[in-house]
Queue: 2 jobs
Job 1
Amino acid sequence: MSAKRVLGRSGIEVSAMGLGCWAIGGPFTMDDKPVGWGEVDDQESIRAIHCGLERGITFIDTADVYGAGHSERVVGEALKGRRNSVVIATKFGLTFDETAKAITGSNASTDYIQQACESSLRRLGIDVIDLYQFHLNDHDMKEAETVRDALESLVDQGKIRFYGWSTDFPERAELFAQGPHCTSVQFQLNVLDAAMDSVKMAEKHNLAGINKGPLAMGLLSGKYTENSSMGSQDVRGNESPSWMEFFKDGKPNPVWLKKLESIREILTSNGRSLAQGALAWIWATSPNTLPIPGFRTVAQVEQNSAAMEFGPLLPEQMKTIDQILNR
């Protein structure tokens, strides 16, 4: 396959996968519960980003709230002197305390959006954000037009180039799609959780469908069994939020593990690792999809980026997976 994709209506060409930078933000909390992925080594994070760039990855996705500002700072450090070789996406909408490493609420006012954008530019050490994404998944649609207008204003000011909404609700993304500089929607998509309504909506409006959770929060990495348990600082641990469907009570959810076992053989065909097969499924689903697997180590980036060499699954493999999973 061509290891390239077009970032929706922007016409910008990017690598077929990006680097998802939630995990490298390190620990942070919401309502005193962990929403990070545990401790991180910033130097390893920087080496991993460099490894991705060397292997042809040109799309990096982060958010101001990841690690309460820390992920953006690490990305900014890693991209010093390399800014022109990469498309940078970040997000806004959640408020946080950098010192306390805690989410404090949300804000979608026009003044706040301006301020959040300028703060992200500073942390990233850049002059313009390529893709600025609204991070409030279920924000009121009546108020969303004001948010869209604020983003068009940031385009006019030269602070951002394009924007999108990180939402699993297709009708919300559709509202944003009416804006001239909207070019993407970010939603959860993986072989176990095929969000086809969002995929079709992205195709209909020629938006890039940026895929969070492409490896089902790590379940599709293949390294977890029913006996695995997640650490206390991990968003997948026993205090995990209600939306964490792939892990329950700090362990992999047996329902999803069973589904995974039923399709493992297809995903690992042709010498692929399980994670590489999971990414291959996403590429075969639509020309608009753009998975952004998370990482904390160089080894993870090496394995994920090697998936681009294999390309998408074949149509008959896709059909068989649908039959096995009854969809």
Note: The longest helix spans residues 141-156.
Job 2
Amino acid sequence: MIHPVRRKLMKKMLARSMSLSIALTMVFCGCAYLDDLEENTFPADITVDELSDNLETAADPKGIFKKCHSYLIKQEMSTKGADGSSYTRMVEVKFKLPNSLRTTTFMNGKPVLAVISNGKQAWNVNCETDEITEIKGSSYQLIEVLSELGHPSSTMISVFPKIDLSEVITSDDPVQRYYKATCYSKYKDLPPIIFYIGKENFLTKRLETTRFTTGGSYKYISETDKYSMYDCVWIASESRVIVDDMVFKYKVIEYKMNIDIPDSEFQLTTPWYLKNTEKVVKPTAVSAEQQKAPAAECK
């Protein structure tokens, strides 16, 4: 039996690590700290199409990620609990064409939480109890949008039908300039996702959106301290995610593309409490006469 406090923490981590891990699979997600961002907004000096093209070129200059058929990202996640104690988990993200995505959280080397998405549905999986819950509503819609952003062939303009673009100048010393892209998805009721993109390097500096759970909604912010190049692709290698009142720090420890991932990684398993109750019905032998006999008519 799982301790009630631990169960509450696991559910909280599950709801939150889901979207943040998916967001971090994007090669253009992450940013420098912008907590004290004071906006002086001006019209952008480029078009949305130009911004989208520059984003792809900056993060994937040789087009390697765009052509990959699968990828694996392993991240070390650390945070502090309500009592001030620190703990670390390992988060693993697996993607495989056409649209299979799995995010698994490990504790002491054992999987405890997973989110599986096939592009049409998504599920929360408690790996310790085999409890499976389908993700629906706005929570699923956000996962779908973030998953599309993490797809190798996707671009900003292919995912978002409407993008409001402006330029932001901070009051920092030295002054920082960003393009601010407020992106609206195909889901009319889903709040926009806001990107702050460096004007000089076209790497995303900040992502803001809203997460939804059964307990309500909360602001979600993804930021990054550092970008690193893996196989000619720029990855947000050291990041932090702010969700409600918690801060999660991430560090990439492994990144691979074009690896073999079995389809079983993206399939739901039969819960343990059903495995021994399923009846196996063996086919009975059929004689030659029975094979030739016409089917009985319904009366």
Note: The first strand starts at residue 40 and ends at 43.
